[in-house]
Amino acid sequence: MDNAKIARFFEETAEILEILGENPFRVRSYLNAARAVRDLNRNAAAAAKAGEDLTAIPGIGESIAAKIGEIAATGRLKYLEELKEKIPPQLPSLLRISGLGPKKVKLFHEKLGIDSIDSLEKAAREGRLDGLEGVGEKTVANLLKAIGNRRKGEGRFRLDAGRAAAETVIAHLKKTPGVDRLVAAGSIRRWSETVGDVDILAVGKPGGPVMEKFTGHPEVEQVLAKGQTKASVRLDGGLQIDLRLLPADQYGAALLYFTGSKDHNVALRKLAQEKGLKLSEYGVFRGKKSRAGREEKECYRSLGLEWIPPELRENRGEIEAAANGKLPRLVELENIRGDLQMHTTATDGANTIAEMAEAAAGLGYEYIAITEHSRAVRVAGGLDETALTKHFKEIDKVNRRTRKITVLKGVEVDILADGGLDLKDRFLAECDLVVASVHSRFNLPEGEMTRRLVKALRHPRVHILGHPTGRLILDREPYGFDLDEVFKVAREEGVILEINAHPSRLDLNDIHARMAGEKGVKLCVNTDAHSTAGLEMMTYGIHIARRAWLTGKSIVNTLELKALLKTLR
DNA sequence: GCCGTTTTCGGCCCGACTGTTTTCAGTCG
Ligand SMILES: Nc1nc2c(ncn2[C@H]2C[C@H](O)[C@@H](COP(=O)(O)OP(=O)(O)OP(=O)(O)O)O2)c(=O)[nH]1
Ligand SMILES: [Mg+2]
Ligand SMILES: [Mg+2]
Ligand SMILES: [Zn+2]
Fold first, then answer.
1. Among A307, A331, A330, which residue's Cα sits nearest to residue A319?
2. Helical spans, DSSP H, in A234-307
3. How far apart are CA A94 and CA A104, in angstroms?
4. Max Cα separation, chain A?
5. How far apart are CA A194 and CA A188, in angstroms?
6. Does residue A444 carry a pLDDT above 90?
7. Euclidean distance between CA atoms A293 and A203, whole angstroms
8. What SS3 state is found at A434?
9. What is the pLDDT of residue A344?
10. Would you tell me how many other CB atoms lie within 10 Å of the CB of residue A511?
11. Apex CA A201: angle with CA A197 and CA A202, to 5°?
12. Smallest Cα–Cα separation from A347: which of A378, A390, A368?
């Protein structure tokens, strides 16, 4: 069982305990444990079965270690099953209505027998909530709105959508008097693969007109909150925007706070406590006296830490590394010398080879690889050996015409259901670059899928495993297979694992790419571009690589062409 | 439930905004 699934057991446990009115710190322990498992650099179930002492992992103690053992052995958690007996199955879903927390859910359930969103809405409409302790007219009205929003499908958004929305809002606020600076913070600044909302920090005099301007944006559907330093709105389409306003001399502390992550903040604040300091969005303080606040760097330094790049701020070991001067030198976009997966008009792309080459040269690249789909990928117009051979002649022509960039003859060969490849070995031997990826039969049993991938990895002509898990963000789950085994074989065979940079994929993800890097597996960051504009998605992949703690060393498309070709051979 | 070069018990990040409240609880960032 993968770590994310195990984490879900503890998250569900936490939700039910919360509704039952348990000690909030105990609830938090379950949430911390869930996170610890999710972020673990190895499979927790496998580790438990192998007899590893899981209590060595921070956030996991005797009780939860035993529960992981139980889940690993039986696939079930008795404690959770018993808890589920105590409340209606739909009740925890009420926690996802914004403004509703465990206290009110408990109240509604106990006093009125509410057991679902439907029954809650009905009770609210019939006026049965009025008169309950702490519930007035406005509470009910807000609740009904929140239920409506929930129904319309509030949820998380892809990072690219979040970044676009942030730009729009920042442009809207830009020229407001009294605003010196605007910057996107939160999960957007950390480059999380999805964002729950858009967080924007404004620097300026408190009490200025920026709050009005913000809540007056034409796309604002609902003002959720509005105070002196902080406002939240919901836009048409359901995206929430949070704005925080602070003065310039607290910019660093404010940005630190608003960038998060929450877990990073909590860990920093705990560290500050241990040093006799206090950290908040207003600065680092000893007693009433401010020690830092204007710049992030200064805040970190006052806590004895190096400045931590936002992509690492997930409380996954970065604070300890920063304390010991052990932060990695993360890969940067400028280190990238080429792009090793893209498509052209020969299949489902929108631009020609020459146009892709020209655009890539414009990005400063030394090389690209054209990697059309093979014939099994019918929907994309995949090519057979004859068509690909002809296509390679076109690539030769482009190479003869330009000196600016080298175009490699590649292919994205489909991995068939049995792990065989969709093109003949003799043809593959003639390619400069072979990317192999799965595009069908995603629901094979885990063991079969692992064998399928391993067989492809063992194929002597395969250089890169493309979009290794097949997930589509917010759309399709990764197919199930033994990740550790795939990493092991990739390393043995010298096969490079892709970080697909397209914002709908980001596959491998940050956690998995980090695991791969730690195991000595080589990676590359490719855009899988289907147009010249698609080449610019590289930045998303690079930031995922950074979130994976990767340096340029483990990423092959930072190599010069000669060195790359040698690695491929 | 977890954790400990000041603790094995008694803490657990710190603050803004709202609604219903007369001093604050709940929820959220
Ligand atoms: N100290 C502290 N900071 C918090 C807490 N919750 C949120 N923050 C800070 C860190 C977050 O990155 C930032 C923005 O909050 P969000 O709820 O929008 O979270 P974030 O953007 O990280 O993730 P998201 O994609 O929006 O779910 O505010 C908290 O409980 N304590
Ligand atoms: Mg956010
Ligand atoms: Mg937010
Ligand atoms: Zn593909």
1. A307
2. 251-259, 262-274, 296-302
3. 10
4. 81
5. 8
6. yes
7. 13
8. strand
9. 97
10. 18
11. 135
12. A378
Using the atom order of ligand 1, give the atom closest to the CA of residue A190. 22
User: Which ligand places an atom closest to the C-alpha of A156?
Assistant: 1
Return the SS3 of A355.
Answer: helix
Closest CA to A203 of A318, A281, A115, A305: A281
Backbone angles phi, psi at A200, to 5 degrees: -125, 130
- Each residue of A516-560: pLDDT tens digit? 999 999 999 999 999 999 999 999 999 999 999 999 999 999 999
Q: Is residue A122 predicted with pLDDT exceeding 90?
A: yes
Q: What percent of chain A has pLDDT over 70?
A: 100
Q: Please name the residue whose Cα sits nearest to atom 2 of ligand 1.
A: A262
d(CA A184, CA A165) in angstroms, rounded, equals 10
Q: Please, what is the average pLDDT of chain A?
A: 96
Element (H, E) at A410: strand A406-414
Q: Tokens 């600044």 appear where? A: A189
Name the 3-class secondary structure at A343: coil
Q: In Å, what is the CA distance from A175 to each residue of A203, A228, A456?
A: 12, 19, 55
- Given a cut of 90, is residue A154 above it in pLDDT? no
Q: Report yes or no: A454 and A486 within 8 Å, Cβ to Cβ.
A: yes
Residue located nearest, by CA, to atom 27 of ligand 1? A196
Whole-number Å distance, alpha carbon A332 to ligand 3 midpoint, is 27
Assess contact for A462 and A490: CB atoms under 8 A. no
Smallest CA–C1' separation from A282, nucleotide: B15
Torsional sign, CA A394, A396, A401, A402: positive
Kindly report, residue by residue over A221-231, the tens digit of the pLDDT.
999 999 999 99
| Residue A241 C-beta-side C-alpha neighbours within 13 Å | 33
* Number of C-beta neighbours around residue A176 at 10 A: 17
Categorize the per-residue pLDDT at A378 as very low, low, confident or very high, splitting at 50, 70 and 90: confident
At A379, which amino acid appears? V
Torsion angles phi and psi, residue A368, rounded to 5: -140, 165
Q: In this model, does residue A283 exceed pLDDT 80?
A: yes
Residue A70: per-residue pLDDT: 97
* Nearest-CA residue relative to C1' of B25: A134
Does the C-beta of A229 come within 7 A of strand B? yes
For residue A327, give both structure tokens: 């932060």
Distance A242 CA to ligand 3 centre (A): 5
**Distance separating alpha carbons of residues A47 and A537, to the nearest angstrom:** 36
Please enumerate in sequence order all residues whose Cβ is within 8 A of that of A161, keeping only pairs 6 or more positions apart, or say none.
A195, A239
pLDDT tens digit sequence for A63-121: 999 999 999 999 999 999 999 999 999 999 999 999 999 999 999 999 999 999 999 99
Evaluate if the CB of A238 falls below 7 Å from strand B. Answer: no
- Say yes or no: CB of residue A187 within 6 Å of ligand 1: yes
Q: How far is the CA of A303 from the C1' of B14 (A)?
A: 17
Confidence of residue A155 (pLDDT cuts 50, 70, 90): confident
pLDDT per residue as tens digits for the range A454-494: 999 999 999 999 999 999 999 999 999 999 999 999 999 99
